[in-house]
Amino acid sequence: MVKLTRRNFLKTTGILGATPFLAKVATAEEALAAAIVERDEYPLAKPENQIYTVCLQCNTGCGIKAKILDGVCVKIDGNPYSPWTIQPHIPYKKGISDASKIEGGLCLKGQSGIQTAYDPYRITKVLKRAGKRGENKWVTIDFHKAVSEIVNGGKIFSNVPGEEDREVEGLKSLYALKDPKVMKDMAADIKEIWHKKMTVEEFKKKYAEHLKTLIDPEHPDFGPKNNQFMWIHGRLKAGRSEFFKRFVQDAFGSANFNGHTTVCQGSLYFTGKAMSDQFEYDEKDKKAKWAGGKKFYWQGDIAGSEFVIFVGASPLEANYGPSYRSRAITDGITEGKLKIAVIDPRFSKTASKAWKWIPNKPGTEGAFALGMINRIIENKKYDAKYLSNANKAAAKADNEPTWSNAPWLVKIKDGKPADFLRASDLGIFKYKRKFTASDGKETWYELDGFVVLKDGKPSVFDPNDPEKGEEGELFVDTTIGGIQVKSALQLLKEEAAARTLEEWASICDVNKDDIIALADEFTKHGKKAVADIHRGVSQHTNGFYNVLAWYSLNLLIGNYDYRGGLVEASTYDIAGEKAGGPFNLKKLHPGKLSPFGISIIRHETKYEDTTIFSNYPAKRPWFPFSSDVYQEIIPSAGDAYPYPIKALLMYMGSPVYALPAGHTNIEILADVNKIPLFIDSDILVGTTSMYADYIFPDISYLERWEFQGSHPSITWKVQPIRQPAIPPIPETVTVFGEKMPICTESFMLAVAEKLGLPGYGPNGFGEGNPLMHYDHYYLKLVANTAFGEKKDGSGKVDEASDDEVNIFLKARKHLPRAVFDSSRWQSACGAENWKRVIYVLNRGGRFEDYEKGFDGEQVKNKYGKQINLYLEKVAKGKNSMTGKGFSGIATHLPIQDVLGRELKQSGKFQLITYREIYMTKSRTISNYWLLNLLPENFILMNASDAKEQGLKDNGLVKVVSDSNPEGVWDLKPFTKKPMIGKIKTTEGMKKGTIAFCLGYGHWATGASDVVLNGETIKGDTRRAKGIHANAAMAIDPYLKNTCLEDIVGGSVSFYDSKVNLVKI
Amino acid sequence: MSGGNKSRREFMKIAAGVAGAVVLTSAAKKLIAATVEKPSGEVERMHQELLNALKKSPSQRKWIMGVDARKCIGCDSCSVACAVENVAPVGTSYRTVYKVESGEGKDLNRFFMPTNCQQCDDAPCMKAANKFVPDAITKREDGIVVLNYEILKGSKEAREAAKKACPYTAIVDEAGGFYTANTPKLEQYENREIFEYGGEYKNKASLKGTIRKCTFCLHRLNSGMLPACVTSCIGRAMYFGDANDSSSLIYEKFKTKAAYILRPENKPQVAYLGYKSKEELSKVSSESCIVCHGQ
What we know:
By secondary structure, chain A is an alpha/beta fold. Helices cover 25% and strands 20% of the residues of chain A.
């Protein structure tokens, strides 16, 4: 019992100088409530000390509340309005005063974000290199001076030995083609050249006076010089992405806006794209074709499921993401509702909760799925009713939200599956169909129907027929009208039956019984079973087909759009396109350019169409089915294929660190002839930005705008909004007369100001509609989100009450006018939208209420259309390296180089990476709270493997390989960093496989000394610990400067390299 | 202030955890109004139950914590949340999550055991420290064990004895250090105000020299917020509530035969649900804990 003297009373109960105060004497009941008097109110509990925003410590993007004390963010917790952090999430209408004391869960990385924002190594001024690239010698330079140098070019590195006379082409000379009409006409004529309807000579004649704007008039399909200004981004989300695209593509006219997708899940996205292609009328091409495939993928709805197979996925440690997906797993298992199996060479934390852990050989994931498909088809455990539906109407009649092309008949040419059988092949009529455009205009077109076999006879149908349903026989192998045909499902059956279960098990190096057990369990739960896959499946040279095999397996039980099955993400439109306002971004760019030309990564282009086509193999691969091929960007610039690059602007990315064999990028980045001008936007001197000419400090996720979007397994329609929560760390500058922090946006605004780019300035959005501060842009996106997607405004959110408006303003008192100005914000979004904008910002975005996510046994936000089991577009494609075709059905491919040759690697151990929840890929090394718990990583190794190699726990080893026999990071000219790490033995690792977790082994990012203005800033050795062994990963023997890659889906291979360990 | 001595006395009673006094602010009114909603989901339910408990006087409530170790995923989100919330001494948290890998083949298992101060009713730290200085450590009516910082700063013997006596290794030293010392900049978030036991600690320096431990986030409880480890848990393994409320979620789950406590002789106020092996998810025992803690 506390002895209450005056002295210790003050010590134990005083709070922040708040003095006790008294009102009138109240009732007995109210007296009891006196325990919650204001004097005890914890300041961080008050709504005016909280700003709702979105985490970015990994890509999951959980909703957070940043809690502010004296202008400093001191605590971060989960936003309870966001379904990421709490289940069920609180109603959107709940007042923020009521929500201020409730918070959702948030993982340790999210909690540590304070240390990302308040990092002592953050840069506040623009840096220019004082020495050679990569020497890590810098000087600070005035923001506008740096922008001038970049725009004007010249001998801007005359102080660097060896570069005294080097003339740099500034952005103003790359900004060559400025006429929107000429650009549009040229783009159309390039298509004519590609369709062999125009020759290059004819093109040159037509555009004689503009030839000097082209990279190479002999190859006009390279596009204009504007394309030689290229953009690369790492972690970039929507909204900010639109702002950047506006600059790079719409204003500057460059076709090179490339991101990092293939280092993450690449093939997962592009298999999703191929499977989601619909056969529909295309307005541009004026005919029916395969189109509309979207870059996305599916994940499982765990909370509704009874059996989940996680393949190469560990949601309790990584994935998208632990804060969201963990509770469905832990609740489901402890309540006995859910059983999980994990296929992973490593006994992950997720595997520790599993009914079965199956350690497979990395790269055999597709084979495992085909083994399961083999078993399921043989035992007829598939959903025959679902699979027999060939079109929309048939699915509808069964209350199925999706259908597949499983029963569709495929022509077999020269023994290989080719394109689909069509009505015209049978001399049958073509449908006459009517297309109604969004403006009401009607167009009639012909549809050459597809064919199934019904009651032994061919039957023609329209895939999207809303009324006339078509069902086909599942397994067809016959001849019709002299043409050999097989159904898509028959092709899958044959792929699966190409090997016995024993053979599949042998390829995977697993027990045959496990394939059987999983297949049998998978078909015992109706639609409430799902195979949930991630990078372990996609990041191989055979990634595309591994993914296709697993998604095909899911099709066998038809679980798409079902609770417990595969689901997709759903987001509110921020661009004002669906509702046509309030701010339809597409219409808000006067003088907008439309870039054209082959990109530096040769994506979504057919090699054979282009003027650079010569023979096979191409100099480097072409990617007709994928984009954002991260590993190709810098090496292609290095090879000047298809053309050289003159200037690079990179954002929040480190290809050197992130990519397998990323060290191959260093030589190119350090070479001023290969990349004459290199500008990077980073919050500190990082593992790639250290090679830049200029580093512009950026604002961290706690200081900026962004629209996070969603992830496949989140079943509600959402739009989390990232907004400034703390004052910016970089200095303030003035652009277009507006004060703003130095950041990527202000760099672009300053260049736009100097070059007079269209779409910026006092009339940037249109007459009298300014884009002079980035707030003018982002507030419009918030207004669009608040307005919703219905043209009649019925999708609007509520307006903020006076109380909420006051709290909103009070909560932002600590923000300087450079980032928060209520009158600037209000005029940017329009007075009529202001209170709704506040309502949305007060909640950190827009989130559909919990009950709205479900529709009985199905989810409400459905994918709702055709899913392709057989990929005709892919089957008709040509491999730019061999001239051969691709498979249109799931198949097992061995690990290969880009020429399709099997690899010979002398390493004894297959190297994989994994993610501990403690670190994200590269940006959390600055978080000391995290380093406390895991100061360094280690090389995880099977205990008996270690014993055989004579290696012990905590023993040091160096990782070497055929492509890196020295086992070092050659960080020329900076230093050489050997790849040395500590061994950790475990029973939880497949024999023959070793692993290390990503995020450690840094040589920049505050880990090393940096010279700034002649003074050495000592690095923090806490950040240099551990090993980053990406430089030991295999280099493709043909390309020589790139890692192994999947040339169909574009994924980098993370898990197919073989290495050796050298005892130190 | 109006009211004079009478109200001051009433006010002092509240400070000691005794019912009385009369203050009712608009914030308090709102909080009472908010309690009429029906909560859904476990976190909201626990939050509601917390608000109900706060309506009672401190002597009528008894804070207890529950850990369902089966749901713990060993992520350490709770330890970091705690370290940030309480500005814990550099290199420490009030909370530790032990991670064990055991067995092989079919018996291969990994399990995770979070621990912090158990606010024991018969606290060994209290008995040990108070031998050197009376009231170095005291026990509140609501169950929380209080380290009296000003007293403990003055007695190294009391501090060492308390640390040694605690079998849950719950007590840490505050050396007054910073993560961003020896870097280009000492960051402000490290030097901010610290809220503990309702105290007014200006910054780290004012705590230097004492020992510290989990307070069940008393500063949050008093404002109607659950402890940081409870809300931040992403596996939803954490539970909290009033042991005197038999309708509460924590009562439902942890006042059961399946739950157990560690070292019952100390009368700890943290209960566990755990498991011996993967196959026995419904079977609970403290045997797995014996692996680390001993008998």
